[in-house]
Design brief:
By secondary structure, the protein is of the alpha/beta class. Helix 9 (233-246) crosses helix 11 (269-297). The protein contains 21 helices and 27 strands. Strand 1, helix 3 and strand 2 (59-62) form a beta-alpha-beta unit.
Length: 678
C-alpha cells in the first residue's frame, strides 16, 4: 500500500520533530565478527597472537590491558589479574620508570594483533568503577597521594578534590555504591561508583582513553553503562538545566509547584525527568570518551562500545544511540536455537530462543549504534550450551538483523574460528547485501522507552511479545521508537501495533492520526494515548475507541492479520515441517537497497530448528518455502539469487509476479538462506 505525504505535514511538525527526522536513520552496516578474550593477562602474548593470525576477528575485546589502569592507577597487573587474582602483587602501584618501561611491550602487542589481521582492538574500561580505600589510602588513593611523581611522564595536574568526592551520591547526600563496595573478590580494596557527571572522573577517564589510543588501540569497551543513579551536585545541575530548557516558569509552577526535586521512584513527572537526566549524562560520558580517543586516532576512527543492553532495549534511543556497538549480555543465556521437553510418553514440547528483539530495537533507535549479543549458555550453566551450528545461527541472526557476531570463548578462539572464518568470507563476497540498506518491513511494533520512565514498565514486555508474534507469523517487523514516530518514517508501514503506549506527545499523536487517515492500520491495546508527554490525561483520546484489549493478545493480532491478508500477507509459507512451532522457528528479515530507485530486495530466512546443547547441533532442514515479496512501484524483478551461507553456494531461482508481489520458491533451507530479488 502506498501513501503520499499529506499537506498536514507542513503545519503539524514542530522544530523538535524536524530535528528528529534529520537525526534519524535506519540504515544497515556491514556486520563485524567479534571475539571477547579476557585471557590475555599472562605475558608473553605470543600464543594469543598466533591464534588470531589463523582466524582474525574484525573486533577484539580485551580485558584491562592498559598502562594506566583506570580503576587503580599505575599498577603491576595487566588484564584481569589485578582484581580477580588474590595475589596482591598484581595490585601494587609501580613507579613512573617502570610504567614507561613497559609501554613498548604493550604497543608491540597491539601492533602484532593488527599485523595478525585483527582490525579493531578495544580494552575494557567502566562507566563508574574505582578500586581502593579512601580511609586506608590504598588502591587509587595510593596513586592519588603520589600523583605528582608521575607529572614528568605526562600526567595532568593533581585534582584538588579527593577522589572520594567523585563518588555518586544518593538522595540523602551519602555515597552510593552501584554494587556492594566490599565485594569479596575485590578485597582488600572496596568498589566505588564514581559519578559519570563529575568533571574530575571524566578527566581521568579521558586521560586513560587517550593513552590507550596512543598505544595503538582502536576504541574501548565501557562496562556497567547503565550505572548512573546520581543525586550529587553535578547531576542536580544537569537536572535543573534540563527542566529549565523543557518547561517555562508557568509550566514548572503548574506541573511541579516550582523547580522539582530529583526523584528515583517511577510514576511521577519529576521521576521521568530524573531518569532522562541520567540517560543524558550517560550519553555525555560516552561522547567524552569518544572525543578523547579521536584526539589521537582522528574523527570517526575510535570505537565506543558499552555494555548495558541486556533486558534494557527501552534505553537504547536515550542512552546509547550515538555509540558504535551495544552489548547485550543476558545472564540467562543467549544461545539461539531450539530444544524440546518431554511432556508425556512420546509427546514433546518444542521451544526456541532468539536474540532478534535486541537487534531490531537497536536498529529502531535510528542512530549510529548496532547491537552485539554476547553468545553464551548463561548461568547456571546447563545442557543448553553452544555447539558449532548454534554458533553459525548466532552469526546468522547478527548478520540478518544488522549487528555483529559474538561468542565468549575460553582462550582466544576455542571453537569459533571455523564459523567466524565462514562469515568473514561471506561478508567479503556479499558486502552489497549488508551495507547501506534500509528495512523493507511492512509492520512495526511501538517500543516507547519513555513509557518505562513514566512508570508503565509493562509496555516493554508487551512490545517484545507483539514483535515475537509477528516474526513467528513470518511478517518482517521493525521496532518503532519515539524517535521514529514522524510521518515520513511511518510511511514505511501498513500496520503499526501500539501495545499500551499510554504517554504520547501531541506531535506523535498527529503523526499516528495522519498515518491512519492516509490508509495505514493501527492495532491498539490498553490505555494507548490516554496521557500526553507531560502526564496530563487527555479529555479526548482519539485512539481510545481503537483499543481491542487491556494488553497485547495473540487472538487480536491473528484477527488483524486475517483482515489484512491481501495487503500484509506472510512473507513465506513453509512446507515439510511437522508442527506449527517448528514452522514458527523460521524467522525473516527483509531490506531494500533504495526506496526511490530500487535494484534489489534482500530477504534473510533464519532456521531456528537447530538443537542447542554442547553435544547436539542437529539442524532440521526446511524442504521448501514459497515467498511473496512486496514490491515497490515500478520495480519489475528479473531473477532471484538464492544464497546458502553455511554451504557457500548460490543458485538462480525463477521469479513470478502476482499483483504487487514477487513470488519465489526455494528448497532445502539450512540455517541461513538469503534470497536476493533483483
Amino acid at each position: 500500500m502506498r501513501r503520499g505525504i499529506g499537506l498536514i505535514l507542513v503545519v503539524a511538525l514542530s522544530a523538535a520533530m524536524v530535528f528528529a527526522q534529520d537525526d534519524f536513520a535506519m540504515v544497515t552496516r556491514l556486520p563485524r565478527t567479534y571475539v571477547i578474550d579476557y585471557n590475555t593477562e599472562d605475558r608473553p602474548w605470543q600464543e594469543s597472537i598466533d591464534a588470531y593470525s589463523q582466524a582474525p576477528p574484525d573486533l577484539l575485546h580485551l580485558s584491562v590491558v592498559m598502562n594506566w589502569n583506570f580503576r587503580c592507577g599505575p599498577i603491576l597487573g595487566l588484564g584481569d589479574k589485578d582484581w580477580r587474582d588474590y595475589d596482591l602483587q598484581w595490585r601494587a602501584r609501580i613507579g613512573p620508570e617502570e610504567l614507561q618501561a613497559r609501554e613498548p611491550e604493550l604497543r608491540g602487542f597491539v601492533e602484532a594483533l593488527h599485523e595478525a589481521g585483527v582490525e579493531k582492538v578495544t580494552p575494557y574500561i567502566c562507566l563508574i568503577t574505582m578500586f581502593g580505600n579512601h580511609e586506608t589510602r590504598e588502591g587509587f588513593w595510593d596513586f592519588y597521594d603520589h600523583w605528582d611523581d608521575y607529572r614528568d611522564i605526562g600526567l595532568y595536574p593533581r585534582p584538588q578534590s579527593d577522589p572520594f568526592t567523585w563518588n555518586q551520591l544518593g538522595p540523602d547526600g551519602e555515597a552510593w555504591y552501584y554494587y556492594p563496595h566490599d565485594l569479596e573478590y575485590v578485597q582488600p580494596f572496596l568498589r566505588y561508583a564514581m559519578s559519570p557527571a563529575h568533571p574530575q572522573w571524566r578527566r581521568w577517564i579521558s586521560f586513560v582513553v587517550r593513552d590507550v589510543a596512543e598505544l595503538g588501540m582502536d576504541g574501548v569497551f565501557v562496562d556497567n553503562s547503565t550505572g548512573c543513579r546520581d543525586f550529587g551536585p553535578h547531576a542536580r545541575q544537569h537536572f535543573e538545566r534540563r527542566i529549565r530548557e523543557r518547561y517555562s516558569e508557568g509550566e514548572m509552577a503548574d506541573l511541579f509547584g516550582g523547580m522539582p526535586e530529583m526523584q528515583e521512584d517511577l510514576g511521577s513527572l519529576a521521576a521521568f525527568e530524573t531518569w532522562m537526566t541520567w540517560m543524558e549524562i550517560i550519553r555525555e560520558y560516552e561522547a567524552v570518551v569518544r572525543e578523547a580517543g579521536e584526539e589521537v586516532c582522528g574523527e570517526g576512527n575510535f570505537i565506543v562500545f558499552p555494555n548495558g543492553g541486556q533486558n534494557r532495549e527501552h534505553l537504547v534511543p536515550y542512552a546509547f544511540r550515538d555509540v558504535d556497538y551495544l552489548m547485550f549480555e543476558r545472564s540467562r543465556g543467549t544461545v539461539p536455537g531450539s530444544w524440546s521437553t518431554r511432556v508425556i510418553g512420546p509427546f514433546e514440547l518444542q521451544h526456541s530462543w532468539d536474540n532478534l528483539f535486541a537487534y531490531a530495537a537497536t536498529l529502531g533507535a535510528g542512530g549510529r549504534v548496532r547491537a552485539q549479543t554476547l553468545i553464551g549458555e548463561g548461568r547456571p550453566r546447563g545442557r543448553l550450551g553452544l555447539n558449532h551450528n548454534a554458533l553459525l545461527l548466532a552469526h546468522a541472526e547478527a548478520a540478518a538483523f544488522s549487528g555483529g557476531g559474538m561468542a565468549r570463548g575460553i582462550g582466544p578462539l576455542r571453537d569459533m574460528a571455523e564459523a567466524m572464518s565462514l562469515y568473514d568470507r561471506h561478508y567479503d563476497r556479499c558486502r552489497d547485501l549488508y551495507d547501506g540498506l534500509t528495512p523493507w518491513s511492512k509492520a512495526a511494533v511501538a517500543l516507547y522507552g519513555t513509557e518505562y520512565f513514566y512508570g508503565n514498565r509493562g509496555q516493554v514486555g508487551q512490545a517484545e511479545a507483539a514483535y515475537d508474534a509477528l516474526i513467528a507469523r513470518h511478517i518482517p517487523t521493525d521496532v518503532l521508537t519515539t524517535r521514529g514516530c514522524f510521518i515520513p518514517n511511518l510511511h514505511r508501514y501498513d500496520l503499526i501495533v501500539l501495545p499500551d503506549v499510554r504517554f504520547i506527545s501531541e506531535e506523535q499523536m498527529r503523526a499516528l492520526r495522519t498515518f491512519r487517515r492516509e490508509g495505514g492500520d493501527l492495532l491498539v491495546f490498553g490505555q494507548t494515548g490516554r496521557y500526553d508527554d507531560r502526564m496530563r490525561e487527555r479529555e479526548d483520546n482519539p485512539l481510545a475507541e481503537l483499543s481491542v484489549g487491556d494488553a497485547f493478545d495473540f487472538e487480536a493480532l491473528e484477527a488483524k492479520l486475517a483482515e489484512m491478508r491481501e495487503t500484509l500477507p506472510p512473507l513465506l509459507a513453509v512446507d515439510g515441517l511437522p508442527d506449527m512451532r517448528r514452522r514458527w522457528a523460521i524467522k525473516p528479515a527483509m531490506y531494500i537497497d533504495s526506496r526511490r530507485d530500487p535494484s534489489r530486495i534482500v530477504v534473510h530466512l533464519l532456521n531456528y530448528n537447530v538443537e542447542i546443547g554442547r553435544d547436539f547441533g542437529r539442524v532440521t532442514p526446511v524442504p521448501s518455502a514459497h515467498l511473496r515479496v512486496p514490491l515497490p512501484d515500478d520495480f519489475v524483478p528479473q531473477r532471484a539469487r538464492v544464497i546458502r551461507v553455511e554451504d557457500e553456494s548460490e543458485e538462480i531461482a525463477a521469479v513470478g509476479i502476482e499483483g504487487q508481489f514477487a513470488t519465489v520458491g526455494v528448497h532445502d533451507l539450512g540455517i541461513h538462506t538469503i534470497i536476493v530479488v533483483e
